[in-house]
Design brief:
This protein has a domain of 57 residues. 41% of the residues lie in helices and 6% in strands. It contains five helices and two strands. The protein has a two-stranded antiparallel ribbon with strand order 1-2. The longest helix is centred in the middle third of the chain and has 11 residues. The termini are far apart.
Length: 103
């Protein structure tokens, strides 16, 4: 009989996330432990250990919402002109720069 351990080492935590089909290196978890942005962890002496439920919660926050096309959500925002930047053709000087065939 195999027992499920309550705490995972950093390497085991990275493998756990990878087993869900998401890329994550042990070194990335180490960086997150220093800089923030990673899953919750506990200190056990000088070691960091992770709970599966904390890894699951963190993965859920990192995943975007499901989409059916690249134009859904944030992808569409990248195609919009920035505020304060006039679009081509909004100034009469733009007409002078356009070839005659495009006017």
């Amino acid at each position: 009989m195999t027992t499920v351990r309550a705490f995972l080492s950093r390497a085991e935590a990275a493998e756990y996330v990878q087993s869900h089909g998401l890329p994550l290196a042990r070194g990335t978890l180490q960086k997150y432990a220093s800089t923030g942005g990673g899953p919750r962890f506990h200190k056990f002496g000088q070691r960091c250990v992770y709970r599966r439920e904390d890894l699951d919660a963190w993965m859920a926050t990192k995943l975007g919402r499901p989409v059916t096309t690249s134009s859904d959500g944030e992808a569409a925002a990248d195609d919009r002109p920035s505020e304060g930047v006039p679009e081509f053709g909004s100034d009469t000087r733009d007409l002078a720069a356009m070839p005659d065939a495009d006017r």
